[in-house]
Design goal:
heterotrimer, A alpha+beta, B alpha/beta, C alpha+beta, B: Rossmann fold, Rossmann fold, 7-stranded parallel sheet, C: alpha+beta, Alpha-Beta Plaits, 3-stranded antiparallel sheet, 2 helices, 3 strands, 38% helix, globular, hydrolase (chain B), 3'-5' DNA helicase activity (chain B), helicase (chain B)
Chain lengths: 489, 813, 71
């Protein structure tokens, strides 16, 4: 399962049941959750129950699954319950049984068979756009917006140069609130979380950012805090902070976007005020295109239409988009790393170059390739900014040139080891705060207490010879010591 | 401040250049003054001019000036001030079909996985220096010397530029084109040829000829009454290098042609271009020459360089009817390998013998290349070896590969002074014998006279990278030879005297690719590892207190290093490997060997005993590990060895590292299926050894060797009889080392080792890794000599006790 | 009755410990308890300073005897 679905799960699962009820009123949301969030087995359960008129006894359902797949079954069931799709019907006269919840059941039926006037799949404009745009334009627009954001993160926003749109204050703040970057003085520094973010595929990145957006849409207190933090930017165009947005509106809109068609323009008429307001922000992300804020129509970009595609479809779509992003460059592998630590990257993308520059020393640039070296210094510099050696290794592996992929393992093991060692070397002493217990009179007393510390999981070091041990917390031990004499006396 | 420093460096460089600025300096006569210290012989003013001119031949005089072609947010990473942004050099539309990039500084980057790569590689080794050859992308650099070499094997600048353009993905920077053209204008235009014992200045360009004749310095050197001669160029037809199928046409580009299938468009264009070149060449076949006085050859050569026409030295040996022929041929069974042939073909490219250097990894058969060159020229040969031991090996190799009558081989070393019979022959000597002008015994003086009075066809210079530059000047100056062939595994010198070699011997003619030879099974595949040995608190405290020089002893005597060594010996002996353990520190060598009950050899080991131990190691199943001091770095030939453990090493010397690796590259078992040799460097953690180690590995890493770092051996504590396993034992060891340092006796031992090495004719590196005549820092020329003297006297108690100890151990073994 | 002492447990290579001992030797203001070759307890308030001085010291111990100026 992709990281993006994991992230969205975490967020969704934290929502109260009432929110789900409202969310599932939209057929588009029910369909999106069904398509995007559910593993195969869970989908099968839903389909089996969708047109079942009576609750299905637990025992019957369990029989559908082979005994050796019990774990998968339990996981699927548990997920469905957490997403408030499935509930257990308890009836004193009949056995425990499963049923789909409403309105999920109704909405999904509507989504699959059509009908109703919910308009949750968007309303295409019925008049032709005088300034109509095509798919290529939308791809370019989305790329420019999204790359602009990534650029900003790696601290390379050009000074009026090409290679990324100027990033809006709202997005900047969102990245900071999400912990992807830190502002140090006037410099933007990417965090460890930010680097992980960069390493994700684009769909996952979009979800990650949207969830930050959702989290901050709810939280008014967050808004206030950051206003006081940054009085000069109180005019900042951030709707999340200015509106107390309804997460159901926001989520429904996102799920709806996922069901729209690329290249089609849609009308604003059926949108809620929250959703209209959202368009400004989604435009900053490159998820929708709207010529002007006052325009009565909008176009979803590829970033929007792939939001809720299921994994299989997603791969091809995202590959298509990756190609668009790389302007004709071939597939993903573009990095060569040699056993003498020279690194070559077949790229002209300022973004990819900026990412490489985070952990290597670049020296030469050709129109289609950059060359440099990784060294102890360059890796340690990266590590100091919070990037881990494993992240670097995974980045190199993910983007390894097809020539390197012919090797097993793909990356030279000596280089991988060395990158890890450079990190370890930087951590020459492991420091753990806590308490040293010493001066035990008897071995028994020492043993007793050390074992207890171990049992409660606070012990980090012990020397039976010297009758000393070190613990991270002392409260439980102190309590244990206080209680014990009482028992003895 | 920076500019000031630059100025000084320039001056230093100037004075150095001036002293050696004799490409193809053949003159034997005025040597004494020429190589003595300080810039002598020439007026200072002229020195400066020459130095400046040499610098004009450097690419730094042709700076890359283009501004970036792409300006975006990534531009800031490419040091805008330093012009490393080459986005101005546009890609060709079909750049995917081409494997090469060029930068504005003469650096070439090759996709080694490209279908055209093998051909391009061959071309690049001819015109550029390989600087990085790992798995995927190789880097080469165009330098003054590499272009000099390219021109000397017969390529002209047009060829070079055209061929480069064909292979390049991106446009060629105008400054590099200008640079190549500029170099080509002067390189190779002038040759100094020794023909029928007369020296001629030769050129194909009448304008150049006129310019030289009118030159106020060269003009007077011309032999009066001698006619200006015009001849047609001698073709290569008819010459075959001994041992090769057919040596007819060795122009790189054309040889490439033989090998290719013509399927790509790029290739077709490539050949079309080359075809055109050939036509042009035919037009310019006339040669003009004038004779110069023998003793003026040096002057002329120097002046030519000053005029930016460095003279190439060629030997038209087939037309040498003055010097007696030597009866020598390769034995019918002797087969030379493709890369050896390739190297030799560069030397004999146009039917004459060019002087220069061939670079082959240790174990890849440098000696056979030398023997084959001798068999091709068939004139008197003088071989300069690095030690007495190596001199004997050279003789054996000549007898093994060629039909030479052993009586025709003479050896002149400190152990042995023999002459050959007949008019012509081979004499093998050492650099130290040939250059030691002081205190020469009568016999030696006669030998030197013999060496210097004759005219040799070929001078073979072994291991050219270890010899101090002034020794070279002396050898090359005093011994008169028509052609010079330098052989080495690496042109690395920590003293940047490589440039000297190019002008003293000649350009680098060929450099093999280590990884390629290894893949083809010519040299062993080696697994390299660096083992980190933590140092105990107690040891490390002492390490910190010690001065820089003493610190090395704590590093090598680190108990955990000792244990790692023991573990590795156990492990590899059980696998059936034969192991050499190297230590620069004689004290540690002895301590390790004694504790682990294995034989050891160092400079002080007597000859008979040395032979005995070597035989034991070669032949006995019970003797699988040998401890060696620096004497093992070169010359000792131990093809049985399959595993190498380095417990102490000389500072940051990349050369020593490469050379030691060479000890196992020739492993006998290398052709066994899946055979791996092993090379371990043990380094004490958190000490200066760590820094040195990464420096030492730089060269091999650029050849494509990957060094694995090992931080821990599994179950090392279960090694039977693990040394220094208890804190008490470690403490005792520490006390011993401290006591040893106080007594300073370990330094004396090192000095003894050096003395012995010196007596054997070995050459050394100082503690800074630079070549010197003496091995011990602080011990100047004089003290080294004293030690030599002592060595020749009766053995000291130390040596006697050592011998006793050795005998005792042998009985145990 | 056993005693509990507040501090930071430092686990490191023996060589690093040697350096810490050296740093502490001046005014004995860092180490609370020396446990073994690879472990000791130091004052929490001194941890940052200790790390800094360790870095300095480490670069010292790996200095070349003399710059050879090669490369």
């Amino acid at each position: 399962m992709s990281t993006s679905s994991l992230r969205s799960f975490e967020y969704l699962e934290s929502l109260p049941g009432t929110v789900f009820k409202r969310l599932y009123r939209q057929p588009s949301t029910a369909l999106a959750i069904f398509r995007r969030m559910l593993p195969h087995l869970a989908k099968s359960f839903v389909m089996a129950l969708l047109y079942h008129s009576h609750p299905l006894p637990v025992a019957d359902l369990e029989q559908w699954v082979r005994p050796d797949s019990r774990r998968e079954r339990d996981q699927a069931l548990s997920l469905l319950e957490r997403l408030h799709i499935l509930s257990i019907v308890l009836n004193p006269n009949s056995p425990r049984a499963y049923a789909l919840t409403n309105p999920f059941k109704q909405s999904l039926r509507l989504a699959l068979t059509g009908g109703g006037d919910h308009q949750s799949f968007g309303v295409p404009c019925d008049t032709p756009d005088k300034h109509s745009v095509d798919v290529d334009f939308l791809d370019d627009f989305a790329r420019a917006q999204w790359e602009g954001i990534l650029h900003y993160m790696v601290g390379s926003t050009g000074i009026g140069m090409q290679g990324g749109e100027e990033v809006s204050q709202g997005v900047k703040k969102l990245l900071e609130l999400g912990g992807l970057v830190e502002i140090k003085g006037r410099r933007v520094e990417i965090t460890q979380a930010g680097f992980s973010f960069l390493l994700q595929e684009i769909n996952a990145q979009v979800w990650t950012l949207l969830i930050f957006y959702l989290e901050n849409a709810e939280s008014v207190s967050d808004m206030r805090r950051f206003r006081t933090l940054d009085p000069f930017r109180s005019q900042a165009n951030i709707s999340v902070c200015q509106l107390n947005m309804d997460p159901v509106d926001v989520l429904s809109f996102l799920f709806m976007l996922g069901s729209l068609e690329l290249g089609q323009d849609y009308s604003l008429t059926t949108l809620t005020p929250t959703q209209v307001k959202m368009l400004d922000d989604l435009r900053d992300f490159g998820i929708v295109y709207q010529r002007k804020s006052s325009s009565r129509r909008f176009y979803p970009t590829r970033l929007a239409t792939t939001l809720t595609s299921d994994a299989g479809a997603l791969r091809t779509v995202s590959a298509g988009f990756d190609n668009a992003l790389r302007a004709g460059g071939d597939s993903k592998g573009f990095i060569v790393i040699e056993t003498n630590y020279r690194i070559y990257a077949y790229t002209s993308s300022p973004l990819q170059i900026a990412v490489l520059a985070l952990f290597s020393r670049l020296s030469t640039r050709y129109p289609n390739m950059v060359a440099g070296r990784i060294s102890r210094e360059s890796i340690r510099r990266a590590i100091q900014t919070g990037i881990t050696s494993d992240q670097i290794i995974s980045y190199l592996g993910t983007h390894a040139h097809p020539q390197m992929r012919k090797n097993v393992p793909v990356l030279p093991p000596t280089v991988v080891d060395q990158i890890r060692l450079w990190q370890i070397e930087g951590e020459r002493m492991k420091a753990t705060g806590g308490f040293l217990f010493k001066d035990f009179v008897t071995a028994e007393e020492y043993d007793n207490l050390a074992n207890y510390a171990d049992e409660v999981g606070v012990l980090v070091w012990r020397s039976d010879k010297r009758r000393m041990f070190f613990v991270t917390r002392h409260e439980q031990i102190a309590a244990y010591l206080r209680n014990r004499p009482k028992k003895l006396t | 401040m920076a500019s000031k420093r630059k100025a000084t460096q320039g001056a230093v460089k100037a004075s150095r250049m001036s002293r050696i600025s004799t490409p193809g300096s053949v003159t034997p006569r005025r040597i004494e003054s020429d190589y003595s210290h300080g810039p002598s012989g020439l007026p200072d003013q002229r020195n400066t001019i020459i130095a400046q001119n040499v610098q004009k031949l450097d690419i730094s005089s042709f700076p890359y000036m283009l501004s970036p072609g792409i300006i975006d947010s990534a531009s800031e990473y490419f040091q805008p001030g330093q012009k490393r942004d080459l986005t101005a050099l546009k890609l060709k539309p079909d750049h995917h079909n081409r494997p090469l990039w060029i930068d504005g500084w003469g650096k070439l980057t090759l996709e080694n996985f490209h279908p055209l790569a093998p051909r391009v590689q061959d071309f690049l080794t001819t015109i550029a220096e390989p600087t990085s050859r790992p798995a995927f992308l190789h880097e080469y650099r165009l330098t003054t010397h590499s272009l000099y070499a390219a021109v000397s094997v017969g390529l002209n600048p047009k060829d070079i530029i055209r061929t480069l353009k064909l292979f390049l993905k991106n446009e060629m920077p105008p400054n590099v084109i200008a640079y190549i053209t500029h170099c080509g204008k002067s390189y190779g235009k002038v040759k100094i040829v020794l023909k029928s014992n007369k020296y001629f200045v030769e050129t194909a360009d009448p304008a150049v000829l006129q310019m030289l004749l009118k030159d106020p310095e060269i003009g007077p050197c011309r032999v009066q009454n001698a006619e200006e001669i015009t001849t047609s160029v001698s073709t290569m037809a008819g010459l075959a290098i001994a041992g090769t199928k057919d040596a007819a046409d060795m122009r790189v580009a054309e040889r490439v042609e033989d090998q290719v299938e013509r399927n790509s468009r790029v290739e077709e264009v490539y050949y079309a271009a080359l075809g055109e070149d050939d036509d042009e060449d035919d037009v310019q076949d006339a040669l003009h020459a004038f004779q110069i006085e023998d003793e003026k050859v040096g002057t002329v050569a120097q002046r030519c360089l000053a005029l930016l026409y460095p003279a190439l030295q060629e030997y038209d040996f087939r037309n040498d009817y003055i010097n007696a022929n030597l009866e020598i041929d390769l034995r019918p069974a002797t087969q030379i390998r493709p890369y050896q042939e390739q190297g030799l073909s560069k030397m004999f490219g146009n039917g004459r013998a060019k002087s220069g250097i061939i670079v082959l990894p240790c174990g890849a058969g440098k000696t056979l290349v030398g023997v084959t060159a001798a068999c091709t020229i068939k004139k008197g040969v003088v071989v300069l070896a690095t030690s007495n031991m190596s001199a004997i090996q050279w003789k054996n190799e000549f007898v093994k590969w060629s039909s030479i009558n052993p009586d025709n081989i003479a050896i002149f070393s400190s152990d042995c002074k023999s002459l050959f019979t007949g008019n012509s022959g081979i004499i093998i000597t050492t650099y130290s014998m040939a250059t030691n002008s002081r205190e020469r015994a009568h016999e030696s003086a006669n030998m030197i006279k013999f060496l210097q009075s004759r005219e040799w066809g070929l001078m073979l210079l072994d291991e050219v990278h270890v010899v101090p530059a002034e020794m070279f000047r002396s050898v090359i100056g005093t011994i008169k030879s028509h052609a010079k062939l330098g052989l080495t595994a690496t042109l690395l010198r920590e003293d940047d005297k490589i440039e000297d070699l190019n002008f003293l011997i000649g350009p680098k003619l060929y450099e093999a690719n280590w990884m390629e030879l290894s893949q083809q099974g010519h040299i062993a595949t080696v697994q390299c590892a660096e083992v980190w040995c933590p140092m105990s608190t107690e040891f490390y405290e002492e390490y910190m207190k010690a001065n820089a020089r003493n610190r090395s002893l704590f590093c090598v005597m680190n108990p955990s290093k000792f244990q790692a060594c023991q573990y590795l010996i156990n492990y590899h002996e059980n696998r059936g490997d034969k192991i050499i353990v190297f230590s620069d520190s004689v004290y540690a060598l002895e301590a390790y060997a004694r504790k682990l009950m294995r034989p050891y050899l160092y400079g002080g080991t007597g000859n008979a005993e040395r032979q005995e131990i070597l035989d034991l190691f070669r032949n006995s199943q019970h003797c699988n590990t040998l401890f060696l001091s620096k004497i093992g770095d070169t010359s000792l030939d131990l093809p049985e060895a399959t595993c190498l453990i380095q417990i102490s090493s000389q500072y940051g010397s990349r050369r020593q590292e490469a050379q030691r690796l060479g000890r196992i590259l020739r492993a006998k078992r290398r052709s066994e299926e899946g055979f791996n040799a092993f090379f371990y460097s043990l380094v004490s953690k958190d000490t200066v050894e760590m820094v040195f180690s990464s420096r030492r590995q730089a060269f091999l890493a650029d050849q494509g060797y990957a060094f694995k770092v090992i931080t821990h051996f599994k179950n090392i504590e279960k090694t039977p009889d693990l040394a220094f396993a208890t804190p008490e034992a470690r403490h005792e060891l520490l006390q011993k080392v401290i006591a040893e340092l106080e007594s300073k006796s370990w330094k004396q031992e090192e000095e003894r080792e050096s003395a012995a090495l010196l007596a054997d004719g070995n050459l050394f590196y100082g503690p800074d890794g630079k070549p010197s005549r003496t091995a011990v820092s602080g011990a100047g020329d004089r003290s080294a000599k004293k030690i030599v003297k002592r060595k020749s006297g009766p053995h000291s108690d130390f040596f006697r006790s050592l011998r006793r100890e050795n005998e005792r151990r042998k009985k145990l073994a | 009755m056993p005693k509990a002492v507040k501090g930071v447990l430092v686990q490191c290579d023996p060589s690093i410990k040697a350096i810490i001992l050296k740093i502490d030797a001046l005014d004995h203001d860092f180490i609370v308890e020396d446990l073994d070759d690879q472990t000791l307890v130091v004052k929490e308030s001194k941890l940052v300073e200790l790390k800094q001085r360790l870095e300095d010291e480490l670069s010292n111990t790996q200095q070349m005897p003399e710059e050879s100026g090669s490369e």
